[in-house]
């Protein structure tokens, strides 16, 4: 198949623009998850990187750690790839996948940090079970984090924050240590929430060595 045909097929299948399809085809060989980082550095996994604003800015400010960004939405993957090229970042890799699958595939204790910034809120009560931050998710994250590693969740839905807080507070291997946003920048997504009167809640939990008594 010619390159143009491949791009047109990609666009039809995934509803991406030609520019995004071109960026993905051109840049995945440079920033895709299969490309080695070329060093042994602490690894941050970000689930749902969206358009990649926070991913790229935080990676640029934190060059001693590597980042694996996971996003299911193809246009977001394309947008992040373009940012990585613009900023010439070498410490970020991107994969279009379900973050849970990527997390499951990681070895125990292999992650320095897991980030989930503004996960899909599933605001209707009957959809709350679809939210990411379930007890099973916390179990998985706790296992994949190194001792002392962190989980950072940010959401601007009150009920989501309450649910996540209750999961993290009661998890035997996680200690909810903070509610500060740290180096997390305001993304366009967060700004839209602020404009609509929602305020962000940050929850930071640390992986304990043994179950909390
Ligand atoms: C509300 S957006 C927030 C994006 C970004 N984190 C930000 O703060 O601007 C949530 C993102 O998570 C992605 N997402 C939802 N479930 C996912 C999953 N299981 N794995 C990877 N990405 C997921 C969505 O496609 C969407 O881009």
Overall description:
The chain has a 7-stranded mixed β-sheet with strand order 3-2-1-4-5-7-6, sandwiched between helices. The chain has a single domain (21-207), classed as Rossmann fold, CATH 3.40.50.150. Strand 1 (43-47), helix 3 and strand 2 form a beta-alpha-beta unit. With 213 residues, it is α/β, with parallel strands linked by helices. 40% of the residues lie in helices and 22% in strands. Helix 1 (3-14) packs across helix 2, helix 2 packs across helix 4 (74-87) and helix 3 packs parallel to helix 4. The longest helix is centred in the first third of the chain and has 14 residues, at 18-31. The structure holds S-adenosylmethionine.
Describe the structure in brief.
The protein contains 8 helices and 7 strands.
Topology, pairings included?
Blueprint: H1 3-14, H2 18-31, E1 43-47, H3 53-60, E2 66-71, H4 74-87, E3 92-96, H5 99-105, E4 111-117, H6 135-144, E5 145-155, H7 158-170, E6 174-178, H8 188-195, E7 201-207
Parallel strand pairs: 1-2, 1-4, 2-3, 4-5
Antiparallel strand pairs: 5-7, 6-7
Helix pairs in contact: 1-2, 2-4, 3-4
Bound molecules: S-adenosylmethionine.
